[in-house]
Each structure stands twice: as C-alpha cells, then as structure tokens.
C-alpha cells in the first residue's frame, strides 16, 4: 500500500449487512436461495473513502452479521488497515475480503490510479462469463439454458446433484446445442463412479467438472483416469490449500473464500507454479463484490462472474452485460476521487 494508506490515520466508517433478492431462485445440491446477505464496509483517511463487499461462505457457518462484527473488532487492532497485516488478523473469508477490497479501493483513490495498475495486472477488458443454470428438472434446466443462450451467454455452468445428472445435461445440450458446458456438482458425487460420470458427460460436450466429491474425500480422485479436467472449489479455499491439490487440474479462486484480492493474487501465482489452470469465480454478490474479481479475469482459463447477474437488483455503477459479455463498471477500484464521506 502507499505510505498514506499504511498510517494509523485510517479509520473504519462502518460495516453493515445488506440484503439483495435473487432473480427467481438460485438452487444447487445443498438447497435454494431467494436472497443473499452481504457485508459491506467503508474505510477513510479523512479525504477519500474505500469500499468493499463480502458474501459469507455459508457452508463454513459464516453469517453477514458475524462478518460485520469481525470487521468492527479487527479495526481496533494495530496496523489493521495494512493489507498484509490483515491476512494475519483475520482468517480467509468474507470479512477479510470486504476489508481488503476496501483498502485497495482507498489506495487507488489516494494514488489516483486504478487498482489493476497498482496490482500489476493488465487493464480490464470485456469478458465472456459463464452463466449458471440452477439445479432443477431436466426440462426446466433445458429451458433456462435456451433462454441464457438467447441472451448471448456462450458458456453455461450447470449445477448437478449426483442423481439424474446425465439426463439434465442431455436436456441442456438439446436446449442450447452450441453452448460450451461446464458442470458443478458441489460435492454431491460421493458414492458414484466419477470416471464413468465424467465419460458420459464428456460425450455430451461438457469440458470441465467442478468439485465432484466432498472436500474431505479428495483422495477419491487420486489415480483416476478421467476424460475431463477436475476443478477444485470447496477443496481450495485459500493459498494454503494449493500445494496439496495434486488430484486436480484446476482451481476456482473466489475472493470470498480467499479473503480478498491480496490473497487471490497470491493464489493465482501459486496455481500457475503448480501447473494448475484457473477459474475466477464468485458467490452471489452485487457488482461491488464482483468488481475486484473482474480484475483477475485476464489470468483465468474460465471466468464465472455472474453473481450480480443472478440478482433481481444491483447497485448503481454496476458491471454491464452486453450480448453475454461482462463489461467493467465504475463503482470500485477505478482510482476515482470520492471526497468526503458517503451518504
């Protein structure tokens, strides 16, 4: 961070919980969500205000309320507003993500330069994001795929459950015959013949399987000869996990799991060093939460940043969708100057 951002003059303006409705329902093997609660925070140096957002990792038991309390608590620690120090003060998760991203946003304003430049990344360009097809009957998923393809989405991420998945993908393929397909089992294939499932899905044009087995059962993937690459999601939470993921060919980097852009950058570097491909993913979130991850799209083999597109409403300055291409918004990290405190 800049010298100014490292001083003790920084202070937390506040951390709060906000609720956003989902457009319809977002359904995976663990259940359905009709809304998402996010934690947002703001940090100031007295002249500029940096903002960040995090979505709690619900399968770890995180809640937005607990994350807001954690941010308020850690703000009183010495050097809490130094990003590297923050990695020691808070564990990976949504609280650290929100605060880390707020600090990046503040630094960009202090420097008068965009975050991508400060982070040594390339300037963001429109990207083709995957669009999620929620778990449902084959017929409903096929119609959802048809509609998504009609909106310009060329890559569909299909949620599976471990039962009837081949029928679901066959129906989706019929509904969107020219779409690229990846699937996400969300740990639901325990007890299945993973190699046989992979072979059947490959024949239907699937190109990637995400997290087929529970994270605790990664050994079940060892020594398998699979027709498709396997991507770790729940098995890859943060930088500390990467070295042990020899059974995988790719990892899904999500800022909420990692604990912010700072950790995610380190994860991307480590993934490449270990010969792993990269998906840049997200939780359900507004564009304030997606914008930092968008900067990493240039490092990714797959981009899955539809979290805000699945909501019924978003923030002003949101990322914009044009013919299936996601364009950067203006509400975070652009080095814009925001004088004074937010309303």
TrEMBL record:
Which EC number(s) does the record attach to this protein? 5.1.1.-
Which parts of the sequence bind Mg(2+)? 184, 210, 233
**Keyword Isomerase recorded:** yes
Its required cofactor(s), as named, are: Mg(2+)
Q: Where is the catalytic site? A: 159, 254
Q: Name one Pfam family in it.
A: MR_MLE_C
Q: How is the cofactor bound?
A: Binds 1 Mg(2+) ion per subunit.
List residues of the Mandelate racemase/muconate lactonizing enzyme C-terminal domain.
138-231
Q: Which residues cross the membrane?
A: 278-300
Q: Which GO terms describe its molecular function?
A: metal ion binding; racemase and epimerase activity, acting on amino acids and derivatives
Entry keyword set: Isomerase, Magnesium, Membrane, Metal-binding, Transmembrane, Transmembrane helix
Matching InterPro entries, A to Z? DgoD-like, Dipeptide_epimerase, Enolase-like_C_sf, Enolase-like_N, Enolase_C-like, Mandelate_racemase_C, Mandelate_racemase_N_dom
Keyword Membrane assigned to the entry: answer is yes
Q: Which family does it belong to?
A: Belongs to the mandelate racemase/muconate lactonizing enzyme family.
State what protein this is by name: Dipeptide epimerase
